[in-house]
Design brief:
The chain is α+β, with helices and mostly antiparallel strands and 561 residues long. It has 16 helices and twelve strands. The radius of gyration is 45 Å and the shape is rod-shaped.
């Protein structure tokens, strides 16, 4: 907009002397001699073209335009006085001052200044009448207002654009918005920049034109900038790019090499692009704070894992002694019991020790998986062997509750390349949970099916099931689903968490199908050829509360048939 105003002012200053000089020569200097006439012509052209050159050289329009308006007011007052005063047809030219002011400035204030200048010309002509040779008004004097009026015809479209309110509002918005508004060609050259660049970048808008912006972008960020431009050329509606832009020395804050972070938003505007460049210091500070918090949390997890591992190791030694001596006493190696209650109490001590040892072992395994120190050694083995081992271990527990434990393993299940101990642990934990939460007389089944390069196996039961609201808690260490039935059973809530970690180690997936009162089916899918890379990868179990089943790493909750 500023450039348009400057172009219009320069155009008027280049063309106006022809009309002004002709009127001055005809009305005033023709009777004062050739010398005065020549001097007047040179003065009118020289002064007008000097003002045009001053604006072109400095870019400062307002002071020069004000001076031009004042000079035009004085000159018009002299011409009106010489043409016969208020009766002269030249009085119509006072309209030229507000019209031309509006054509250049495009604002109501510009019209107001033009009206003031026109009023001053009318008043001033009374004072100049005694000083100039006055000619009686003539009809041919209308040629001068008519000539000026004809100049308005090719400029009507320009006057309409000047009075365009949205354009004015956009110009004011660009001056108020906290960012630099850029117009960028599809080739990446900047065509225009708002005046906010002086405040935000400490740079004149002209310095960003062409490749000025690209030259100031940090070398490491230029690829992202060019990629965003390429996306916009291919039809993208919006792109955001984080950039570091080099500022003048002393204006980049604490960053080295005078680079400061900015956020550039690219949008479509016809055949060109409109970009908004804003400071990005707050986002960078938040990201740095987040990185520090993440490192602190990671350090806390490592310290917690080491603590759990140390405590687990310290507990296992006395527990092994308790369990071993309890077995010796129960076998009556050093003599029988005098009272049957003594044997009952020793059995309780042994069972409690075995339960506590299982808890400590689970805690140690979870801690090792979290820290990435779990040593998994994939090897090929027959999957049915792992199922048979699990079935033999769980048979007594199932028979105690009169639960039918069955297997459905097809012949084509074949071999799987995985950590045998981990797969057995998965089967034992899932089967133990199924038996634990299945009422007496129920049924638990272990099945498998090979599909392509993956082996799917599951453990299903006819137990109490899981409510949809409780699904998000599954897989969280030390978390148990609480209801009237599960409160009767002891446990740490580590079983499913350990299963989830072991499955993740093998690039596997886990899904759960369940509904209250209809049982539960947990399905595991593992790659037959083992995890990628040939070795199980470390994983980290989520200790925070997952917000949904997707974050918990579980499949959808569905009612079983």
């Amino acid at each position: 907009m500023a450039r348009r105003m400057q172009r219009r002012f320069v155009g008027i200053m280049l063309a106006a002397p022809f009309l002004a000089a002709s009127m001055a020569v005809v009305l005033v200097t023709a009777r004062l001699g050739a010398g005065v006439t020549v001097a007047t012509i040179f003065a009118v052209f020289g002064l007008s073209w000097f003002l045009a050159l001053l604006v072109a050289a400095t870019g400062r329009l307002m002071p020069t335009a004000g001076a031009a308006l004042g000079i035009a007011s004085i000159g018009l007052a002299g011409l009106i006085a010489a043409g016969g005063g208020l009766a002269s047809p030249l009085l119509a030219l006072v309209l030229a001052l507000p019209v031309e002011a509006f054509y250049v400035g495009g604002r109501r204030r510009s019209v107001g200044l033009g009206v003031i200048a026109a009023t001053a010309a009318v008043i001033l002509q009374f004072a100049l009448t005694p000083l100039l040779p006055v000619e009686a008004p003539a009809a041919w004097h209308w040629l001068f207002p008519l000539a000026w009026g004809l100049t308005l015809l090719p400029r009507m479209r320009g006057l309409a654009l000047t009075s365009d309110a949205p354009a004015q509002e956009q110009a004011r918005l660009e001056d108020v918005i906290d960012g630099v508004v850029l117009r960028i060609g599809l080739n990446g050259d900047v065509a225009d920049a708002s005046s906010q660049s002086r405040v935000l970048l400490k740079l004149a808008p002209e310095l960003l034109s062409g490749t000025g912006l690209f030259d100031r972008i940090h070398l490491a960020d230029r690829v992202a900038y060019l990629s965003a431009l390429a996306d916009m050329r291919e039809g993208a509606a919006l792109r955001r790019v984080e950039l570091r832009i080099r500022l003048p020395k002393g204006d980049a804050g604490d960053l080295g090499a005078n680079h400061r972070p900015f956020l550039l938003e690219l949008m479509r505007a016809g055949d060109d692009l409109v970009a908004l460049l804003r400071a990005n210091d707050e986002t960078v500070d938040l990201r740095e704070t987040l990185d520090v918090a993440r490192e602190s949390a990671a350090g806390a997890d490592v310290a917690k894992g080491r603590f759990l591992a140390a405590v687990s190791h310290e507990l296992r030694t006395p527990l092994n002694a308790i369990i071993g001596f309890s077995d010796m006493l129960l076998n009556e190696i050093f003599g029988g019991f005098k009272d049957p209650r003594q044997k009952e109490y020793v059995e309780l001590v042994r069972d409690s020790g075995q339960h506590l040892l299982a808890v400590v072992t689970s805690i140690l395994d979870v801690s090792r998986i979290e820290s990435g120190a779990y040593s998994a050694q994939p090897e090929p083995f027959r999957f049915v062997d792992a199922v048979e081992m699990c079935q033999s271990m769980m048979r007594i527990q199932a028979e105690t509750k009169h639960i039918t434990l069955t297997t459905q393993i097809p012949v084509d299940a074949g071999e799987i390349n995985a950590d045998r101990r981990a797969v057995q642990q998965i089967l034992i934990n899932l089967t133990s949970n199924a038996i634990k939460f299945t009422p007496d007389g129920g049924a638990v089944s272990i099945g498998a099916r090979r599909l392509g390069s993956r082996l799917h196996f599951w453990v299903s039961d006819t137990g109490i099931g899981i409510a949809e609201a409780d699904l998000c808690n599954l897989g969280k260490p030390f978390m148990q689903i609480q209801n009237d039935y599960t409160r009767r059973f002891e446990g740490t809530g580590l079983g499913l968490s350990l299963v989830k970690g072991l499955v993740s180690l093998h690039d596997g997936t886990m899904s759960i199908e369940s509904a209250p009162g209809e049982g539960t089916k947990v399905t595991i899918s593992l790659p037959v050829d083992g995890p990628k890379g040939g070795a199980a990868k470390p994983t980290v179990l989520p200790l925070s509360q997952p917000r949904n089943e997707k974050e918990a790493g579980l499949g959808p909750l569905r009612k079983t048939a």
